Amino acid sequence: MCPRAAPILGAADGDAKGPAVSRRSELSIFSSGPAGYRRRRRVLPGVNVRLVMALVILASLGISAWKLIPSLFEGEKTVVAILGTDGFLAGAVVEGPNGAVTSADDGSAALEFIAPATLYVSAPGYVDGSFPIDEVPLDRQLHLQLDPIVVAGRVVAPNGIGVAAVDVTLGDLETTTDEYGNFEFVEALAGEVTASKTAWTSASMQWDGRATRLDLTLEPFLVKGLRVDGVAAGDDEKYTEILRMAESTAVNTLIFDTKDEKGIVPYLSNVQEARDIGAVADRYSPRDAVAAAHERGLYTITRIVTFQDPVRAPVRDDLALHTTSGDIWRTVQGLGWMDPTDREAWEYPLALAAEACEIGFDEIQFDYVRFPTDGDLSIVVYDEPTDSAADRIGTVSAFLQEARSRLHDQGCAVSADVFAIILSVPDDQMLGQHVEELSWSVDAISPMIYPSHYGSGWLGLDVPNDHPDVVIGNALDGGIPRLAGGAVMRPWIQGWGYSEAQLEGSIAEAEQRGVGWMLWHSSSDHMKEALPLE
After folding, report:
1. Could you give the maximum distance between any two Cα atoms of the chain, in Å?
2. pTM for the full model?
3. What is the pLDDT of residues 446-482, one digit of tens each?
4. Which CATH number applies to 224-530: 1.10.1740.10, 3.30.70.360, 3.40.50.720, 3.20.20.80?
5. E-strand spans in 112-178?
6. SS3 content of the chain, % helix, strand, coil (to 5)
7. Which of 162, 166, 226, 246 is the S-S candidate for 180 at Cβ 3.0 to 4.6 Å?
């Protein structure tokens, strides 16, 4: 049995035709004030006060009341205001005993009826409501609240983990998943639900308008890529060879450079600071390289070495790392670094990233997005505290989140290169890189799993470099379960110093675990024979 509706604030009974939804307290927005009444005159059920008074007057005048009743009440209508989630609702159909009307832009609908009566209200995106009206207020105004149709859902990866920052659409409605992959539509209409995210393959399903929950699984785009350095990208013959290699194998991605380890920007950048500090070198045309790759259906990534910058550090020493004596801090190779804790130092790599996205790259990959490791760290001076792992991890995560915020708006995915050791240990190794936190900050994490970088005794191996399959498999098994956020795992694989069989085995380790891979070779001399065909 439905509860009796108040005469001013109507509430739909349980005889709803749409999906069952929970009433939200925030929808009852007209409970008092001009739009609501807390007091009402007490009358006998079913008796119209004005009608009784009119009959008494007519009787005293000796006039036949029944002949004049229609003229007395002709045009006497009640104004019904229909309320939705955001206030007054236009386009709602209100049906009474004497017909139906549609609410205007201000949510109002005037119709003639005598209480007691039941009004039926329907509107797109709302649960049909029925409102028993026992009496009409003296001012002949009613406010009736409709409940919206609400559908909730979740977007997950194949491993069941929620995927954050997924764009989800349903007709004209748009929303974005939260950090756990959840989403919700209010005022929903039946139609196609589509979930899309950069670096992932879109998913869709039909919603019939009745189910109250929708769950979609999003498959990551599995990158199978080759590194293309600036020199190779600018060599027509060599770049053409790489393109042909991709066309005849399973390779679907090429990875270029926007800024390298030496601080060089290998193209004629329009970023003013790159020009001012003398970082620009004319080695290749990224627009031409990207266009050629896209013509062949290839995904394009560009790499930006972030905080190591031996070109910028001497020129912008106000943003560089310093020693306790005030000198610019340098690595054992004599390379300067920018201060990761100085947000002003972030703007240069972010400007290069924005330009790369405008040029047409699909994804921006930040390398050296960490704290330095190969120098005298005891004398480094930072602008902000870095003593705790939380400080360091927070700094790196904040930079990547800022990058993702800007670059997603431009349509580019964001990834980060990390030391592979962090997949196998619980701490950040003083790098500011930690799998769990990073997986909330980027679309893809790319550990550099190079067996030649592991020392003797790792995993009980005298020479880990001789066992790339074991090293790669162990690292991925340690890191993949720790992806708490929506990032995918996509490793860099050592593409030099191996036989065809070793390289094939390295790639197979990644593919067996359902993740993509990228081959690193400093001069882009890739071994075609070792590449899978599909």
Report:
1. 119
2. 0.77
3. 999 999 999 999 999 999 999 999 999 999 999 999 9
4. 3.20.20.80
5. 117-122, 129-133, 141-145, 150-156, 167-170, 173-176
6. 30, 25, 45
7. 162
